[in-house]
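DM from R.C. (forwarded with permission)

"hey, sorry to bug you on a friday — could you get me a structure for this? deadline for the figure draft is monday and I only need the backbone to look sensible"
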Amino acid sequence: MKVDMSHQEVERLLEELEEVLKQDGFDWITAQACGMWLCHDLGYEDQSEFEDALHGTFEQFIIQFPHIETKTDEKGRMVLRLKPEVPQERWRPVKMTLKITDRSQLWNVCMKTQHARVEIPELEFEISADGKRKIDSIYNIVGSAIFNLGTHVRAAASGLPGGHKEKIMECVEDLGRLLDVDTPWTWVLHDPSGQSEFSDMKDVEVEWPEGPIPPAPPSLELGTVQEEEPEHEDDAPPAQQ
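My reply, with the result:
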C-alpha cells in the first residue's frame, strides 16, 4: 500500500493513534472514529483528502501494523485497540539478522519494539532501545540516525571534546554510504521481548534461545484477527486531557 505522507507524518499518525488507544486502556474503539479524529488532528481538510494521502481507507492502512488488533463488532464495524503487552515472564529473546545486499531491501519495514536495539557490526554502530516503539523502513531509520547525529554536532558545536566532532561526522558519512549499498552490510536486531519483526521476513535469519516457550493465550498470539467478543466499544476517542 503506497502512502503519500512523509515517514515523519506516518510516525506522528501512529504516535497520536497510540496515545488515543492508551487512554482507553484495552477497550475497543471504532476505526471510523479514530480515522476522523486523526484526520482533524493532522490538519487534513476532510476525510477524502486524508484517504487520498493514505491511498485507501484508514481501515486498509491500519491493518498493516501488527501492534494494533482489529476485529468486526456486532454492527459490522471495524474496531481496534493496542495489542496487550506480553508479560515479561513470557518474553523470549530473539536475534534477527538481515544481510543487506540490494537497495530494495532498505524498504523492508522494521517493526522494532521499545525493548529492542539494532546493531550494524560493520561500523560498530548501535541504535539503542529508547523506550519507544519504532515502525519504519530500514532506509528511514538509518536516515533518522544520520539526521540526529548531525543535529547533535551542530548543537554541541565547540562543546565537544577534541576529535569527537570529527569521529561523529565520520560515522555520519559511513552511515550515508550504507544507503548506497556499494558493499553488503548487516542489520542485526536484538529484542529481549521477542516481539519485533519485519514486514518481509524472507531474508531474515531468526535465532531463538534453546528451550520451549509456554503456549500464549489466544489474545497474545501475533497476527491474529479476533472475532466478535462481548466487550464494550466506544464510538469516539476519549477527550484529550
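R.C.: lifesaver. The longest strand covers residues 94-100.
me: no worries. The chain has a mean pLDDT of 82.
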